[in-house]
Amino acid sequence: MKSRLFLPLALILIPFSCLAAAYRYEIREGGFWVHNGTAYFNRPLFGTHEPSMLLSGDRPAFAYIDPTSAGKFGTLYIGLVTKNGGKWLDHFTGADSFYEPGLTRHVVEDPQVTTGSLEVTAVPLSSGEGFAIGLRWIKPPVERVRLVWAFGAASGYTANYNFLIDKLQLSADDAAGNIVHIWGNRFSLKSPLPKGRNIWGTCDLPGQLALKDTEEVIHGPAEALRAAPSKTPVIVFSGDWSRAQSPVHLLFTMAGAETLEEIAAHPAQTFEQSLRFYRTLAERVQVKTPDPYFDLDVKAMVIANDGVW
Length: 309
What we know:
The protein has helices at residues 7-10, 172-175, 214-217, 221-226, 257-264, 267-282, 292-308, and strands at residues 4-6, 26-28, 31-35, 43-46, 53-56, 62-66, 71-82, 85-88, 94-100, 103-109, 117-124, 130-139, 146-152, 162-164, 179-183, 186-190, 198-203, 208-213, 233-240, 248-253. By secondary structure, it is α+β, with helices and mostly antiparallel strands. The chain has a single domain, classed as Beta-galactosidase, Chain A, domain 5 (Distorted Sandwich), CATH 2.70.98.
C-alpha cells in the first residue's frame, strides 16, 4: 500500500497525544528531534503569505509545492560522491533530524561514503516565494568529496492535502514536458502542468549544471554523474567541495531571474536572513506551561498561521 501524507495532521507536529507515555520525537536543541526517522515530507515549512510551501521530513529530501492550486514545482535530492561511492543523503545510514519551528536541520553521516559529518538546513525564503538550503561540515571529511544535487519533476501534482509520498519523489513521469534553461550556474524550470509557473535556482559552490535522465538519477549521485540527457530530464549539479571551503548554499525562487540575481549576490546573507526571520517569528507568542512539547508546538503553529494568512 502506498504511503500518504495528510498535511492537516502533519501540522499538529507531535505524532502522539500529549497523554501518551512515550514520544516518537524528543526535544533537543530547540526542536523536535528523531534519530533515523523514516518519514518523508512530513514537515511542511510555511514561507511568506503565498500558497507554496517546502516539504521537508525525517529524511533529508525536499519537495516544493502549492498544495491547493499549482501542485508540485519540483523535488530536490542532495548527495555526496567519494572514492568509496555515492549516496543521496536520505539514504545515509545515520540521520539526526531536527524540526525547529520554521525550518529543519539534518545531521547526516555514512562511513560507507565519507568520514565527514554534514549538516543540512532547509528554510523558506523570508523575502518571497522560494527556499534556501545551507550545507556545512560538522566534521570535515578526510577524502575528496563531490557535491551532487538534483532538482526537477515539476508535475503539478496536487491532491487536496492527501498526498501520495511516491508522487512527491523524483520520477521520470513527472519530468515529462519539463522545460529547463541553464546559463552558467543558474537555471529555470517550467512545466505546463503547475499552471505554467517557473522556478529559478542556483548554487554558490563552483561546479556544473547539466540535464540528466531522471531514471538514472534516482539511483544515486554517482549514477547521476554518469547519466545522459533524455526526454525526461532533471537538473543535476556537481562540484568538488573541499573541506577547507565555506558552507554551500542552494537558492530557489518563484519570483523571476532578476530576483534570483538579487538573492544570489550574497547567498550566505540571504540564507542567514531567512533563518533569523523565522526564528524571530516563532517567538512572537510566548507561552510557558509544564509541557515543553506544547510550548514548542505553539511556536510551530505561529509559523503555520502566519503562512496561512
